[in-house]
Amino acid sequence: MYKESFLMAWASLVANKMRSILTMLGIIIGVAAVIALVSIGNGVKQDIQNSISSLGSNLLMVMPGAPRTPGVRPTAGSMKSLKVADYEAIAKLDGVKAVSPMTNGTYVVIYQNKNWTTSVSGVNANYLDVNNWTMKSGRFLSNKNIQNRERVAVIGKTVAKNLFGDEDPVGAEIRVKNIPFRVIGVLNSKGSGAMGNDQDDMVIIPYTTAMERVDGIDYLRMLYVVAKDENGIDRLQSDIENLLRVRHGIKDTNLDDFNIQNMNSIMETMEETTGTLTLFLGAVAAISLVVGGIGIMNIMLVSVTERTREIGIRKALGATYFVIVTQFLIEAVVISLMGGLIGIALGIGASKLISLASGMSTVISVPTIVLSFAFSMAIGLVFGIYPARKAAKLNPIDALHYE
Amino acid sequence: MNNSVIDIQGITKTYVNGKLKVPVLHGIDLQVQKGDFVSIMGPSGSGKSTFMNILGCLDRPTSGSYRLNGNEVANLSDDELAYVRNKEIGFVFQSFNLLTKLTALENVALPMVYAGVDKKTRTARAEALLSSVGLGDRMDHLPAELSGGQRQRVAIARALANDPAIIMADEPTGNLDSKSTIDVMNIVRGLYDEGRTIILVTHEPDIATYASRNVVLRDGYIVEDKQNLNMTPVQEVTHV
């Protein structure tokens, strides 16, 4: 009996291809839209979280800050208050695992007849670990390189590609501001940063060399401080604040000429932002699901209602209530199931395509798939069966005379 | 006890349209013996179709008793009525009521699907039935590809699918030209000759002459019920 019902339902679906496809389309679009949209939201969220957490959550960034005095207030980070002596003092504090100073400038870098404008950072030997970088080839700056203010450089992947192409950069000589540097290593790629900047587009040299020979400055742009453990990070932050106030002779905390950023607080802020984004995309997805649901509802209601006469004929020929409801149930299940599966395939395909085409990463979430699938299934079933049930309960003659 | 196939006592039917009650049948008594060929005549609005739908178990009476083969129909459940429509009564409609998406063969086989006949048997029987009504070469056509007369012959073949003892036809020739009418009535006459009980609703006196008994309905009452001793025999049709 079930086999017959199934065959009959299938025959009816095939005989009414257009109606079946249109009904499925509602489900397909609803499910696919939800899966694709949520995967974009999750992808953005994951990107941002990854790039922040790749810096490590026990990281503090000390920057020279704008003084809070009346008058012209220069941009944060533009002050010259952070000195090498401050860096050395902070490095001696308890609870500090590693410190890396950083200077920064944008210069034209030349290799033979090729040039590339990029960011040139002066750092110390700790920088590699502090920022979770790894070497692709060669080695990183050594303490000796730093002490002796040597003219050696480590380059990022983007710089290597643009200056050297397929050549091995290690051992080659590049010129920064016309000063020759020997390339001793190439960094592994890190990809785009949280703000979409290319993190591989940079040249790293000893900070001592950078300050004296390249930038010609006697202050640091920034200090990266890594705490020994995550729990001690707040205490370390206040220790650094106190130390710098003493060293800079600041009595009023409102007049601090530095600014300390904690990765945890940055992460929290970013999470709030991405949470809003996911919520927004989720809302759009929910709307498309509801709209898709209404579409399914409409087509199911109309197509089953217009078949009231068919139901009347079937009843007149001896079909029982159960047989008719079974047939329509199977039709609705097949349509919803096929539509749902095609929708899932299309949604996953679309999200892969988006990530391929735009470089955005997309993360497909299983709960979303399950939820959207279940939702469209439920709507398809309810509105496929409800009118059929109503028609199957009529006297055959009433169903036959239905207009 | 009488041995009537159909035994109707005091059947009434009243349609309720909002607050308005429209009585259509006012109390009909009718006994039909096995092998009878009864025509039910009457002008439009006389209630003959309503009466026919009740006879065919497509509708239920408002009051009165309808015994089919001795069983009180009012006591049957919906599923038992479906069984009766499937096995005991073959119904032919004026508007054919074929399923438009199914071929002639599938339409004829449908009642056998509901009867649980296996596919091989029911296909063979449907083919035989279609051949017997002269449509052996039209089995894979959809109803839309058939003429009115051919559709009605498909409908008759379908009514015979489960070999019912009673055939009910509601104006089977109402939508047909005269040649198709003769075709269809010849087939109906053949069914009578096979010993089936036939009830035929019509408003054409010519058609009624095929029957062995003529019942006339007017305004919801039976006003005439007489034997027809001069039944029209099978007619010669010149097929072009």
Describe this structure in words.
The complex is a heterodimer of chains A (403) and B (240). With 403 residues, chain A is of the alpha+beta class. Chain A folds into two domains: 182 residues, no CATH class; 177 residues, no CATH class. In chain A, 56% of the residues lie in helices and 17% in strands. Chain A contains 13 helices and ten strands. Chain A has a six-stranded mixed beta barrel. In chain A, a hairpin with a 2-residue loop joins strand 2 and strand 3. In chain A, helix 11 packs antiparallel against helix 12. The radius of gyration of chain A is 33 Å and the shape is elongated. The relative contact order of chain A is 0.19. The model of chain A has no long low-confidence stretch (mean pLDDT 84). Chain B has seven helices and ten strands. In chain B, the strands form two sheets. In chain B, strands 6-7-8-3-9-10 form a six-stranded mixed β-sheet, sandwiched between helices. In chain B, strands 2-1-4-5 form a four-stranded antiparallel β-sheet, covered by helices on one side. By secondary structure, chain B is of the alpha/beta class. Chain B has one domain: P-loop containing nucleotide triphosphate hydrolases (Rossmann fold). In chain B, 31% of the residues lie in helices and 27% in strands. Chains A and B meet through helix 1, helix 10, helix 11 and helix 13 of A and helix 2 and helix 3 of B. Chain B: InterPro entries: AAA+_ATPase, ABC_transporter-like_ATP-bd, ABC_transporter-like_CS, ABC_transpr_LolD-like, MacB-like_ATP-bd, P-loop_NTPase. Chain B: One of its GO terms (cellular component) is plasma membrane. Chain B: Keywords: ATP-binding, Nucleotide-binding, Transport. Chain B: Pfam families: ABC_tran. Chain B: GO terms for molecular function: ATP binding; ATP hydrolysis activity; transmembrane transporter activity.
